[in-house]
Amino acid sequence: MTVLKPEKSLWIYHLNTGSCNGCDIEILAALTPKYDAERFGVKLVGSPRHADIVVATGPVTAVAKESVLRVLEQVPDPKAIVVTGVCGITGGVFRGGYSLAGPLDTLVPVDVYVLGCPPKPEGIMVGIIKAAEVLELKRRGMYTKEVVRVSEKGEVLDAVR
Amino acid sequence: MLFGEIFGKLIDTLVGGPVVKPFPKEPVKVPPKWRGKPIYDDEDCTGCRQCERVCPANAITIEDKKGEFFSYELNYGVCIYCWYCIDACPTKALTGDDHSGLYVSNDRTKDLIKSGVPYVECPVCGTKVLRPSRSIVIKQFGKYDAESLARASVCPKCRREKSAEEIDQAVRDYLSANE
Ligand code: SF4
Ligand code: SF4
Ligand code: SF4
Fold it and tell me: What is the pTM of this model?
């Protein structure tokens, strides 16, 4: 099994937009020695200005919306946004709540969705690998949603053109 | 004390190998009783709507217009994989994926099941009834084919009011007419 090698190490920024903390713990678990996403060069950074990939959790709450948009504007292009957990995808268990400003992809374009409540750390790692490919394609200027070839299990289905 | 702990860990690593899981070189191993995606099979569904009632996330939407259509939608973008629906389903129309834990996609609008159960005619009087569930037909007749399906889809009213001979004759007429 080959995994697409990105040009640079991936620096991820973890953005909580009002989640229940379940997914945040799983993201941290993906970075701990047991799963060790740092093998792929993934590093958690403290500032959005250093990040390549934004890993977002949670439905965007009305209070957090302004700050979320401001943080996402600070991330340099090209960037890839990964949404982790079903409440960031559709609202999940919080769907229809009065304090939600909509799931994240109604506000900004989202590239990868990791399903689960919360997803497995391996799922988050596959999401990051997939986002690495998105990033690589964006750098070469040929990204569309159909081009991404990393499968659900993290394998590359087809060589990148 | 501390020295012993460190030494113990070292022995553990030397004997049992590294703690890092070799993903993605090796496929992901899920623990026993792992709960993944629920999978829907419309042939087994009786349309009882128990799954819709128990679903805590309202991931299941059922629309039932009596006599016309029964549509079933399960949205994985909402589902929290709790398997309440699987426990509630009386006919095992919902089964769970217990060996995969990785669900990653590029497009959230595609992560759903859109299905439904058709309405079929009662062979005796022609009223529309929901197609009988496969497991119930098999329980009743021991097999699942056109004949047993036709016999199982006799509506409750006919069962109550008609005699066994009348129903038998009507089912046979219906089957020969449909051949
Ligand atoms: S997807 Fe589930 S576990 Fe993750 S933040 Fe939302 S509610 Fe919490
Ligand atoms: S697993 Fe739980 S959340 Fe998902 S459809 Fe079934 S009851 Fe609903
Ligand atoms: S899937 Fe099961 S619980 Fe849901 S309506 Fe069909 S038979 Fe009833």
Answer: 0.83
